[in-house]
Amino acid sequence: xxxxxxxxxxxxxxxxxxxxxxxxxxxxxxxxxxxxxxxxxxxxxxxxxxxxxxxxxxxxxxxxxxxxxxxxxxxxxxxxxxxxxxxxxxxxxxxxxxxxxxxxxxxxxxxxxxxxxxxxxxxxxxxxxxxxxxxxxxxxxxxxxxxxxxxxxxxxxxxxxxxxxxxxxxxxxxxxxxxxxxxxxxxxxxxxxxxxxxxxxxxxxxxxxxxxxxxxxxxxxxxxxxxxxxxxxxxxxxxxxxxxxxxxxxxxxxxxxxxxxxxxxxxxxxxxxxxxxxxxxxxxxxxxxxxx
Amino acid sequence: xxxxxxxxxxxxxxxxxxxxxxxxxxxxxxxxxxxxxxxxxxxxxxxxxxxxxxxxxxxxxxxxxxxxxxxxxxxxxxxxxxxxxxxxxxxxxxxxxxxxxxxxxxxxxxxxxxxxxxxxxxxxxxxxxxxxxxxxxxxxxxxxxxxxxxxxxxxxx
Lengths: 292, 157
Hints:
The structure holds 2 protein chains of 2 kinds.
Chain A: E1 5-7, H1 12-22, E2 26-29, H2 35-40, E3 51-54, E4 64-66, E5 70-74, H3 79-83, H4 86-91, H5 93-100, H6 105-110, H7 113-119, H8 127-132, E6 136-141, E7 144-149, H9 150-153, E8 154-156, E9 159-160, E10 167-174, E11 180-186, E12 199-206, E13 212-220, H10 230-236, H11 243-261, H12 267-286
Parallel strand pairs in A: 1-3, 2-3
Antiparallel strand pairs in A: 4-5, 5-10, 6-7, 6-10, 8-9, 11-12, 12-13
Chain B: E1 2-9, E2 12-19, H1 24-31, E3 50-53, E4 56-59, E5 72-74, H2 76-79, H3 86-93, H4 103-116, H5 122-128, H6 140-156
Parallel strand pairs in B: 1-5
Antiparallel strand pairs in B: 1-2, 3-4, 3-5
Helix pairs in contact in B: 3-6
């Protein structure tokens, strides 16, 4: 087992000082549901870690704030806190739905949204709805704060642009418009503790004429980085949602996935599944009947 | 690297020397004699190590001991200090275990559920217990036991 020291900073300021002091040899701990498993596996990524900074109880990082149009969630809000938050249930239900499917009750009691984002797993459950809402992260260091789009923050599987002296302070997104339809669908091998085995977040805003004005489609566990598939989104823009159209859009998402990842051992399985999940997500988001 | 850790275990104040990288589960079992929590998988998949920290069910195999400074931990030993609980009695009646290895974890998770929601329906039950694995029973006896608890709570309270 890797040897390291453990410090629980009493404030954000102390945490920043420690991050500066340890210069990349500190590892932030925000619940630890991923990190502890890495430690157990003696993961090589952790061999230079001298200290674990446990920020999971810093009250400044646990605030869930609802302004009129923007929701901000502190990075150390646990999934249990998120799925119990009435404002989030009302204004971002498909995000709450995704958080409800994370791990198990015990993982949700400990795991945090910031920890999940920092791990940057391609098989994230909260990732697709957050990307679909064009979420913005606030990163904090002793030099101050900076904001970065979630979709720019993650640059590869388990890779982010965070600097060694920074921490994720919060994530924010706009409250969903009443005229918007949205959905989160997930396929797991079993209901709980299934690391996302393909999921899709869909967001569709339709105008008065019934045509789609804003479309966002984000498949999870399909690509190394959780991203919107704009080619597929464009197929729906300006059109009236229908079963046939959603079927075609689903196929397009599959094509793009294969373009990005190449053909892999799992492709014969993932290709029809992701197409079908996208179709189902769009149907749900727009109120189109599932059986055509 | 060494910490003197103080927390509350099953109602008693305890003080114990631990290393930074020691797991709560190991400290509970090896240093404090609370052996009801079990080591199953070590990576938070199976739920055998579930304990309550400040009332929330948590995997003690992926919790550093040092994390619980000042907190209150309850293990199965603490729950049954005054004899078997309602949930334990229902588990016994419905024979909701065969080898029993998973039972402490199940009972901790079930305890958290019943605290929050005294008479859950079957779907809520299965969702709340979904993080615990049992390789013997096929789960039906566990669900039967929990259904009885839920029914009792509906009628009695």
